[in-house]
Amino acid sequence: MRYAGWRVVAAAFFGVMVSFAAVVPYTFSLFLAPLHVAFGWKREAISLAFGIAAMSIALCSPAIGHLLDRYPPRRIILPAIVLFSSGLASLAFLGPHIAQFYLSYLLLGIVGNATAQLAYSRVVSTWFVERRGMAFAVMLTGNGVGSILLPLFAQHTMETDGWRTAYLGWAPLHSSVDFR
To answer: Which end of the chain is more exposed for a tag (fewer CB within 10 A), N or C?
Structure first.
């Protein structure tokens, strides 16, 4: 019988693949031109949202680490996935006020590391003592795979259905990830 921990690693791979770490840094620039055209926002103003997310993820990561030490990872990761998916989906409903854009990216940054390697590393480390290095390597490969595939997905969706659909398309990716 195969060790059940490898199923956890597979789920963590997919979780990391569609996490903040793979989605936001590698697709943000694809939305600059469409948002500029749609709302007339300056590229510098749009880019501030990335800075907001980066600063909030940096400030919130210690708290997420503390929560992961104190509670089972599932109790942290699953609500974070819901909030992260909601934040991404909310971007599809942007209006002309850039503050909504900033608030959405603030939310993405607050819960970002609870959807990424930090949280899934906690899950994998509880399942492995032997072969832990290999398990971490497989899980972390999800970020690389996501950074290759997700920009292609976003670009294709934007070209065929528009930027709003591309933002909305992220939400189902997150809600389908579960680990046992």
So the answer is: N
pLDDT, averaged in runs of 10, over the chain (180 residues)? 86 95 95 96 97 97 96 95 94 96 98 94 93 96 96 93 89 49
What is the three-class DSSP state of 19? coil
CATH number at residue 131: 1.20.1250.20
Would you say residue 180 lies in a domain?
no
Report yes or no: 115 and 20 within 8 Å, Cβ to Cβ.
yes
- Phi first, then psi, for residue 179 (nearest 5°) are -135, 150
- Side chain identity at residue 100, one-letter code: Q
- pTM equals 0.89
Phi/psi at 54 (nearest 5 deg)? Answer: -65, -45
* Three-class secondary structure of residue 76 per DSSP: helix
Q: Domain limits at 41?
A: 5-173
